[in-house]
Structure formats: C-alpha cells, structure tokens
Amino acid sequence: MQVSIATTSGLERCMTIGVPAAEVEQKVTAELKKLARGRRIDGFRPGKVPPAVIKRLFGKQARYEAIYQQMQQSFFAAVQENNVKLAGMPYFEPTVDEDGKDLEFKATYEVYPEVTLGDFAALQVEQKTAQVSDDDVEKMVDTLRKQSTRWSESSEAAASGDRVVIDFEGFIDGSAFEGGKANAYTLVLGSNSMIPGFEDGLVGAAAGSEVTLDVTFPEGYHKEELKGKPAQFKVKVSKVEKGELPVMDSEFFKSFGVESSTEEEFRAEIRSNMERELKRALRTLTKNQVIEGLKAANPIEVPAALINQEVDRLRRQAVQQFGGGQQFDFNQLPAEIFKPQAESRVVVGLLMSTAIEAADMKPSEEKVSELIEEIAATYQEPEEVRNYYLNNAQQKSQIEALALEEQLVEKILAAAAVTVVESSYEDVIRAANANQSA
Predict the structure, then answer these.
(1) Whose CA is closest to 109, among 300, 301, 303, 302?
(2) Which CATH class is domain 120-132+253-437?
C-alpha cells in the first residue's frame, strides 16, 4: 500500500493511497460470493451458477461494496501507521478504479491542531468573593413568602402589591402593534414586569373599570422597532385581588421541603442553601474567567468537523429542552444559531484537555467525593444520591471529568495573577445566571 499526505488548507489534509489490484480483486470475489449465496437464478441449480454469470449479474454491486470497504480499511490502517490525529470522518474519492489496475483513491479529512499553551502566569483573573448576609437571608425569606401569597378577590380599588387580571391592547400612532395585546393577563402591581408607567397607571382602578395608559417604551427595550416609541394602551380590569402573606409555621416550612419546627431553624436552612448556591456561583464565575483567559492567550484553529458535531449535539439538546420529541428533526434548526457556542465549546475542550494531558493530571478521590457530596446535600436522601454516583460507572465518570476541570482551574489560579474583588450575594448570583444563559 502506497501512501502520501498533503496539506490542502489549514487543518485539512489529503491522503492519496494506492492498493494493489490483487488485494482489491480478493475483496470483489468475496463480495460476489456473498451476494450470490442462496440466490435462485433461472436456468441454474443452486450452487451451480457459473462465475461469469454471477459477475455479470452482481459485478457492479460487488465492486462498489468491495471498493468502499477497501478504502475504509486502507485509510484507517494508514492513519494508524502515520500517527494521524484524525478529527471527524474522511471523504473518499476513487481516482483509479478499473478491473485489473491498482486502486488509487484520495481521502480528504481534518486533523486536530497542535496546541502549545502559554505560561499560566501571564493570565489575568478577576476572582469575586462574597458572603451571605442577614439582609440576604431576610430578602430570600420575604421572596418565598410572596411566592406563597394567598390571593382573594376584592371589590376595592387596586393598590401597589395587589394582583389584577386585565385585558389590554397597545397602539402606536393609532395603530395596534404586534405583541401588544393580551387577554386575562395576570399582573402584580409594583412587580416592575411591565414598561414604566403601565403598572402605576392601574393603581386606583377597580374591577370592571377601563383605563387608557399613555406610556413610552424604554430606549433599551428588547424589540428594536419599539425602542423609545410613545404608546397608548387600552386596559380593561376584570379582577382585583388582595394578597395575604402566609404565616411562618411548620406547614409553610414544609412547602419548601424544610422539616423545621421553628422560624430560626427555617432561616438557618435557607442560609445553608444560599451559601451552597453562592459557593457554586463563585466557582462558576472563576472558572469562566480562567477559561476566557485561556482562550484569549491561546488562539487556535479548530476542525470544522468537530464544530459540526457540537452543533448537532446542541441542536439535539434544544429539541429535548423544548419538548420537540422524536417526531421533530433537529436538522431543521439553523446551524448558524448554534455555531458560535459550538466553536467556543470545542476550543475550550481542546485547550483544557491539552493542559490536563500536559500536567498528567488524574481526578483526585478527594475532589470527586467533594463534588458528589455537594450534589447529595441538595436532596432529602443524600445517602441514596451518594450510592447512585459511586455505584454507577457512567455517572461517576462524568463527576471525574468535572473534578479534573476543577483541579485544572485550581492549578491555573495558583500560577495566574489573581485580583480578588469583593461583591454581594445578589450580584454574584445574577452574574452566574447571566453567564449560564449566554
């Protein structure tokens, strides 16, 4: 087998392979026998069909199958012999494919980039730090109580904090605009979920009343065509409801999965949950800082094949997330939507795997146990969760991969120039959530 490899562009390579005719003919003969086996052919007894007839009937199909097998086998043997770091599947093109002649074909493929990491000491990392304060806990308890508000219909005029059920339609320059209409819409006045002036304009309205609101869309509104535009909303109030906050008792505590008998115990449990959440958020933000620093300091070219694979993975996830089911073909989702995220993931994966391999890192049992314990602590039966991860090889391997990433981040932080920035619980959680949704 003769092999030559040429660089076509970037990470793309073209391998030209020659295979002796005798080797190809052996495969063609084997395929002919396979195709003819058990076939009934008019005029001949089973097993007595002359080779010339078999070749006339099945020769083209047999050669097609044999050539494809030969190209695959020869290519992957050449990949192994030449230590090619193959990224994605190749495209085969026969260039000489004739009876009695040596087979020649080209295989076009991509290889992994050669990644050389810069000195970690050159990385600049901003590491946030924060604590859960008493005020943070108080705000959280207040939020939980508001989420459990008991609403009752009222004939009184609506006040801030009341809930109203409304029908509304918006107009710009006298014409209704798309997305500006809703029926039986539930709104808590003072929640700031509508544009400025909308909720304030409903304070004092009673059930059955109709109100016209003159408001202006903010300059930063998410729809370009509505930014800064003055609008008029015609609103009909069909219901006003007054809210009553729940009593802080064991029944209320239990509704949030907390088995507490006193308010102090409940607040302690809430603080513990918030501290776990804060720890995860701080770790996520720091990890993102390290990753962005790695990407900026180590620009690399990535194989299109790997990006396409990641695009498909993201499209499948999107279909599952939005309940598309098996009847929806994920290929209908435009690849362009997912390409930036896919490319970023591939770059990060290559950089981190290179760093882990260079440092010959292995997941530490201590870090694996720590991560499993963090997950288990969020469940009512933590021991069952621990056993699930420890006794399930696939699940444990995922935790081990995460542990390796955490260990690498710690290693980089130890070498990088780190600036510690004091922050608040709310700011850290908000930033972590923004990163997650980006």
Answers:
(1) 303
(2) mainly alpha
